[in-house]
Amino acid sequence: MEVCSWFSVEEKELIGTSSDGALFKVVTKWWESEHPGGEYEQRARRTGGEQTVSYFFCSKTRPALIWADDKGEWNAGHLAPGSPLGPSGAAESATRQYFVVCHAMSPDEDAVEQAMKFGYPPTEFPPDDRKLTKPEDFIESPAASKP
């Protein structure tokens, strides 16, 4: 894809818990560099450094990333850290962030190995994303977070 991205977790705040997990508010900074022709070994200037605010629900049964879209509406995206194939596409970055936030792991560690290490059940396809009124809704109504 000729682009590398980096992130750092700047702040992490526990918002609430339920019997199956904990919701954290997370402030993250993002950077990226472009590598034309896939020349990743060559140094490239990093751009970005903008902060974003999102939420992670740390749970072995309902792991999720919660974010505001460009309209300001809250969305919950379920993650499948236990997938034997590993995370795909956009879920790869979210899964790496999840393990950094929920298990204090390095973003460079393999997601499949981490899921096995922490006992996540094998999950092929997570439930579809859903809309929320506010991030706390995810912990307040767990049955509603299932399709």
Please give a quick description of this structure.
The protein has 147 residues and is α+β, with helices and mostly antiparallel strands. The protein has three helices and six strands; from the N terminus they run βββββααβα.
Helicity level: 10-25%
Give the end-to-end Cα distance, rounded to a whole number of Å.
32 Å
Contiguous helical run count: 3
Main beta sheet strand tally, sense and closure: 6 strands, antiparallel
Q: What is the general shape? A: globular
Gyration radius from CA atoms, angstroms: 16 Å
Give descriptors for this structure.
single chain; 147 residues; alpha+beta; 6 strands; 17% helix; globular; disordered C terminus
Describe how the helices and strands are arranged.
Layout: E1 3-18, E2 21-34, E3 47-58, E4 64-68, E5 74-78, H1 90-103, H2 111-117, E6 130-132, H3 137-140
Antiparallel strand pairs: 1-2, 2-3, 3-4, 4-5, 5-6
Word description of this protein:
- The protein has 147 residues and is an alpha+beta fold.
- The chain has one domain.
- Helix content is 17%, strand content 37%.
- Strands 1-2-3-4-5-6 form a six-stranded antiparallel beta sheet.
- The radius of gyration is 16 Å and the shape is globular.
- 24% of the residues are buried.
